[in-house]
Amino acid sequence: MCGRYSLTISPEDIIENFLIDEFLVDDWSPRFNIAPSQMVLGAVEHAGKRRAGYFRWGLTPSWVKETSNWKPLINARSETMDEKSSFKHLVNKRRCVIFADGFYEWKKENGKRVPVRFVKLDRKPFAFAGLWDKSHTQSHPTCTIITTSPNNIVSPIHNRMPAIIQNEQLSFWLDHQNDFEQLKSLLEPFPSDKMISYDVSPQVNSPRVDHPSLIEMVE
Q1: SS3 content of the chain, % helix, strand, coil (to 5)
Q2: DSSP label at residue 15
Q3: pLDDT, mean of residues 67-77
Q4: Which residues carry out catalysis?
Q5: For the chain, N or C: smaller number of CB within 10 Å?
Q6: What mean pLDDT comes out for the span 108-128?
Q7: Nearest-angstrom CA–CA distance, 44 and 102
Q8: What is the percent of the chain where pLDDT is above 90?
């Protein structure tokens, strides 16, 4: 699964890296420990323009009437999401990307859970594949991050990893003229030789902690 990640760059760098036409956020600041149920930054494309704005992380489909009894879905499995009632109506019409520059998983070491951060080798930001939905009862659209099988960097620690869309494929993923069947190959594991990992502070265990020290390597 993908349950925690970071996005620490400026709005200007987000706009430049992801070729954003409309940045619809006034209060963005770097985030070092993004957790489910929080507002997250992502993008869709509409009428040829790429628009970046907030989603709430944890999908609630528009057909859910009583949200108090619904557990928001933070992840969707790439292999089966076009078969699941919560996702199948979204795979062709409501695809999005969620921006990040690292994500966390936990390994067991000497009886303790040790957080590990995964980043691209070039340390550049990247985009998770996602789905979104919105109903008249929700103040913001909600989203889920798509997961896939792990690469060789992630697999010793976890059996899933977020599906990362390469920058040159963003428009292909976001264009609703493209059927989901055409896009499944984009959800393959990110290449192992383009990713590194390192241990970080156990303070990342708490979603209430959001500080630059969380992304620093620890011995």
Answers
A1: 15, 35, 45
A2: H
A3: 89
A4: 2, 105
A5: C
A6: 94
A7: 21
A8: 87
Taking a C-beta distance cutoff of 8 angstroms, is the pair 124, 31 a contact?
no
Question: pLDDT digit string (tens) for 59-71?
Answer: 999 888 877 788 9
Give the model's pLDDT for residue 65: 81
**How many other C-beta atoms are found inside a 10 Å radius of the C-beta of residue 114?**
17
The 10s digit of each residue's pLDDT in 142-167 is 999 999 999 999 999 999 999 999 99
What is Dmax (Cα atoms) for the chain?
Answer: 53
Closest of 65, 27, 18 to residue 169, by C-alpha? 18
Helices (H) and strands (E) in the chain, counts: 2, 14
The structure tokens 């920058």 sit at: 167
Decide if 133 contacts 172 (C-beta within 8 A): no
Residue 109 banded pLDDT, cuts 50, 70, 90? confident
| CA atoms of 101 and 99, how far apart (whole Å) | 7
Q: At 131, is the secondary structure helix, strand, or coil?
A: strand
pLDDT for 133 beyond 80: yes
Q: Are 160 and 150 in contact (CB under 8 A)?
A: yes
CA 196 to chain CA mean position, Å: 18
Phi and psi angles of residue 12, each rounded to the nearest 5 degrees, phi first: -60, -40
